[in-house]
User: Fold this.
Amino acid sequence: MFKVNCLNPIAKCGTDNFGENYTLTDNVNEADAILVRSAAMHDMTLAPNTIAVARAGAGVNNIPLDRFAEEGVVVFNTPGANANGVKELVLAAMLYGSRDIIGAAAWSQENKDDENIAKTAEKAKKAFAGKEIKGKKLGVIGLGAIGAMIANAAIALGMEVYGYDPYVSVDAAWKISRDVKHITNVNDIYTDCDIITIHVPLLDSTKGMVDAEAIAKMKDGVMFLNFARDVLVDEAAMVAAVESGHVAKYITDFANPTVVGKKNIIVTPHIGASTEESEDNCAIMAVKELKDFIENGNVINSVNYPRCDAGIPQYAARLTVCHKNIPHLLTQFTGAFSTLGVNVPEMLSKSRGDYAYTIIDIDDKIQDSWVEAISKIDGVLKVRVVK
Assistant:
């Protein structure tokens, strides 16, 4: 029986998929795996038996990835599960940013007691005249699951779409409309586009990438949307650009003291993925990833270990190893089994940065002494018997 702890409420449609071999526990110290959404884990100490953490969402800044990797704990996320929810909000933001829908609705609320509001409105509406998005140039920085969906939807709305992503995956590339113009220099997005939206992960290389220099290159009157991470943008520089009129609107999904309450800056409280459908999709995907890892040893959509998929075990036993990405470890694994007289018909190993993951299929039932032999090899972090 495997025990799973939910640090945050997780949609029941997801946890119902665990089945009879799993039980939910309120005691995180006895959990084999943890499901989390927004709970901060940086100060948490995991129990030795915890083997995995699954984030029901894409962002993982609340999880200490390197420390968990060092402890042999595989961390998963759910890329793309909430993409449609974010896409729809970004499209809405382009519309309410271009047409001042928020200002117009606020006027109606403020004048709700006016008995002649219909007549008054005819005079007031000129203050809320806006622009249509059809025919405008949209720049999409980052063509992952969300960026690709936004680019395609904008094409359908009649926009001229430019996409920038030097690391776009093959899978994502196949999903992008041929009408999206691929840009190889992000500066071309800044200088040419009427509306810009950013959808890149938060990395050391992307933090603060939209700085004062980048903002200065943008067209006068540009509208900039940030539904990815607030720290991708130098928001002090962005506020200054909005106040000067260089940037017409800054729309962000991240409330903080720098941007809230500023004229021509629209702030929502991180609601991009706050839809019933997104929460359900993330929960279902996170549970599926955990089950595949626990039952088969496969690593899909991990953010601190490489993708490693050996399918369903076909041999008598399966062993998995979380280890450092250092030379000659694989030969030590095979050498140890050879010394023990054990046949290894299949072995799959993948690396990612400082860490690697190996799945070893064996022809006979695993003995404790074999696990101990592999565990003692320098660079091995965690050994687990899957079958």
